[in-house]
Amino acid sequence: MATTPFYRELNFASDKSAPGAFEFPFVTCVSSGEPLHLKPHKVQLHDLRKEDQRPSLDVEGFTWQTVPFEGLNGEEGWEERYMQETCEWLKKHAGAKDCKAINYQIRRRAADGLSHQEANYAQDSDQVLSKQPVPAVHVDINRERARVRCLTPYEEDPLAVKAERVAIINVWRPLHGPVMDAPLAVCDARTFDPKDMTHTTDKYGGGYFIKHNANMKWMYIRDQMPDEILVFRQFDSTLIPTAGDAACVAHTAFIDEERKNLGVPRQSIELRCALVY
């Protein structure tokens, strides 16, 4: 029996004059100097559990894997051990010479019944950009600063600084499961047009928010569990986005309006890793 296609609204960068556009007040468009505006578009989301073939970092720009971790969200200091073990796993999985953590971020969705917009926009910038799930299609870092940011953990390693290939890869994992209210969606990098990237800046630096394009293929893991990770590329020095290479993966949280009050509100950890090949 064929399954019913799953559609939900994702928020994309938009002209402020577009019907339905609203201001995302803590992010600025570099070209205009004005606040970023977003507009929701309903898109089909494909459940990775139902895909015939598992995606890869080299082809789609992302993958999902089962990688258990003992002590997740546990005793004090678990984050440091998590970073070390995850970097060791990622180094082997990606075939890199070395992998070091750049930083990590823990997000815990507001659990007081607020609406999608109230829970994610009507707060101070620290809450919106670093504490709550970010419900807007984006790429974390722009190419102008990506290599420097990637090599920051390798400042005392002259061989790494001269490496021909470096990359930034994110690893996203729930702290509790299953995730029902606010999953993470990722875009198949082969369906991503670099012309849709809007260069932006905020208190953490420069990145990109992405305009809607009907050609994009969006995927997520339904009911993702804490032993399941989404791994996706944010930068690769050897890939050229204007040539269509899978240099970065657009991603976003989205609110599943039918299940947003079910289960434990989303709690997650995202780890940004610097890889040297």
From TrEMBL:
Upper lineage: Eukaryota, Fungi, Dikarya, Basidiomycota, Agaricomycotina
Name of this protein: Methyltransferase
Gene Ontology MF term list: oxidoreductase activity
InterPro entries: AsaB-like
NCBIfam families: CmcJ_NvfI_EfuI (NF041278)
Organism name: Guyanagaster necrorhizus
Signal peptide: none
Family: Belongs to the asaB hydroxylase/desaturase family.
